[in-house]
Design brief:
Shape: globular
CATH topology of the largest domain: Rossmann fold
CATH class of the largest domain: Alpha Beta
Number of helices: 10
Mean pLDDT: 87
Low-confidence stretches: none
Number of strands: 17
Largest sheet: 7 strands, mixed
Structural class: alpha/beta
Helix content: 25-40%
Distance between the termini: 37 Å
Radius of gyration: 19 Å
C-alpha cells in the first residue's frame, strides 16, 4: 500500500499528489512513468512522474480527472492509501550532451514537461520553455517553469494570459528568428505534438515527443502500447515513452487512443458495479 502524503488542486480538473514510494523515488528520472491502481479491482493507469524526492522517499504525480480511476484518485485525501504504485518504468529523457533545448508543453502535458526542463537545466543546458493553455484559469506550474528555464513563453488560446496563440506559433517565431536548438522536446496532446514536429521539420531540428498510449502491464508483454515509429512497431512502455517526433505515425496513434472513448464516457457517467448489479438481481 502507498500513502498519499500531499495533495493540492492545481485547477478545477488537475490535481497534484505526492505518494510515499521510497523504492520508486530512489531510481526515478525525468521522462519515466509509474502505473497506479486504486484497489484490487481497479484498472492499471499510467502516469508520467512529475517529480521525486529521494530523501523523503516520495514521488509526485499530476493528473487530470478525466476517467473513473482518476476521478476516484482525485477524491482521495492525504493519509489515504492506494493499492499499487509501480515504477519507475520506461526510459528516462536523454539530457546529456544537449547544449540548447526547447521544451514545449501543452495543457496537463506541462506536468510532464516540467521535470524534463528541470533535468536539462541541471545538466547545464540553456533551456527555452513554451507552454500553452486554453485560458488563464487553467495555467499550472508557472513559477516552477520560470525557475527551470532561461526563457519562458506562456501562451493561451484566447489571449487571456501571456501571449495569444498556440505553442507552435511561438516556436515558429523563434525558429524563424534564427534561434537554434540541439533538440525540441514536445509533450502534450497528440495533435499538438504532431504539429510541433511539423513545425520543426523544415528547419531540420531534432524533435522528441513523449507518448502515453493505451498501456496495461507496462513491461512490453501485453502489446497494448504499440506505436509505429519509422515504419517499425515499438512499445511505448519499454522502447519509450520518448520517440523521434518526425517518425511517429500520428494518425494510427490517435485512432488507437480513441478506441475506448465512448465506453469510457459511458463508464464515467453511469458506472454500475457488476457485483452490486448481480446482488440486486439475486434478491429480487
Amino acid at each position: 500500500m502507498y500513502k498519499i502524503v500531499c495533495k493540492k488542486e492545481l485547477n478545477p480538473s488537475v490535481t497534484y499528489m505526492e505518494i510515499e514510494a521510497p523504492f520508486v523515488a530512489r531510481k526515478a528520472k525525468a521522462g519515466q512513468f509509474i502505473i497506479f491502481r486504486i484497489d484490487e479491482k481497479g484498472e492499471r493507469v499510467p502516469l508520467t512522474i512529475a517529480g521525486y524526492d529521494r530523501e523523503k522517499g516520495t514521488v509526485s504525480i499530476i493528473f487530470q480527472k478525466v476517467g473513473l480511476s482518476t476521478e476516484m484518485l482525485g477524491q482521495m485525501n492525504e493519509g489515504d492509501y492506494i493499492q499499487d504504485f509501480v515504477g519507475p518504468l520506461g526510459k528516462p529523457t536523454e539530457v546529456e550532451g544537449i547544449k540548447r533545448v526547447c521544451v514545449v508543453g501543452g495543457g496537463v502535458g506541462c506536468a510532464i514537461a516540467y521535470p524534463s526542463a528541470k533535468a536539462f537545466k541541471e545538466a547545464g543546458a540553456e533551456v527555452d520553455v513554451i507552454v500553452g493553455f486554453r485560458n488563464k484559469d487553467i495555467v499550472i506550474l508557472e513559477d516552477e517553469f520560470r525557475a527551470a528555464s532561461d526563457n519562458l513563453y506562456l501562451m493561451t488560446d484566447d489571449g487571456s494570459y501571456g501571449e495569444a496563440g498556440f505553442v507552435t506559433v511561438k516556436l515558429q517565431q523563434l525558429l524563424e528568428s534564427g534561434r537554434q536548438y540541439d533538440e525540441v522536446l514536445a509533450i502534450g496532446p497528440i495533435p499538438m505534438m504532431k504539429f510541433v514536429s511539423k513545425t520543426t521539420e523544415p528547419f531540420g531540428v531534432k524533435t522528441v515527443v513523449s507518448l502515453n498510449p493505451i498501456m496495461v502491464d507496462g513491461t512490453g508483454m501485453c502489446g497494448g502500447c504499440r506505436v509505429t515509429v519509422g515504419g517499425e512497431v515499438k512499445f511505448a512502455c519499454v522502447d519509450g515513452p520518448d520517440f523521434d517526433g518526425h517518425q511517429v505515425d500520428y494518425a494510427e496513434l490517435m485512432n488507437r487512443n480513441g478506441v475506448y472513448r465512448e465506453r469510457e464516457a459511458e463508464t464515467k457517467q453511469s458506472h454500475i458495479c457488476r457485483m452490486d448489479k448481480l446482488g440486486k438481481e439475486l434478491i429480487k
